[in-house]
Amino acid sequence: MWIILYHFLMKIMLRFLCIIITGIISGYIGLLLFKNYPIHTAEQIRGTTGKATDVAG
Question: pLDDT, tens digit, for every residue of 14-57?
Fold first, then answer.
């Protein structure tokens, strides 16, 4: 019984490790793709000052 439990836990740990590695690789790919991409705020994209009265009026 302990052998079955051990193999089950090893499968869980292996899957967890694969998920972590995939996340790290995806993060580095995103870093390389968007490294020189300028960051804009929502106000810059909308072209507003951020006041609700301007939108309603």
Answer: 999 999 999 999 999 999 999 998 888 888 888 876 555 555 54
Kindly provide the residue ranges of all beta strands, DSSP E only, lying in 1-57, ordered along the sequence. none
How many H-runs (helices) and E-runs (strands) does the chain carry?
3, 0
Under DSSP, the state recorded for 50 is: S
Q: What is the DSSP letter of 57?
A: -
C-beta separation of 31 from 23 below 8 A: no
Q: How far apart are CA 43 and CA 54, in angstroms?
A: 12
DSSP 51: -
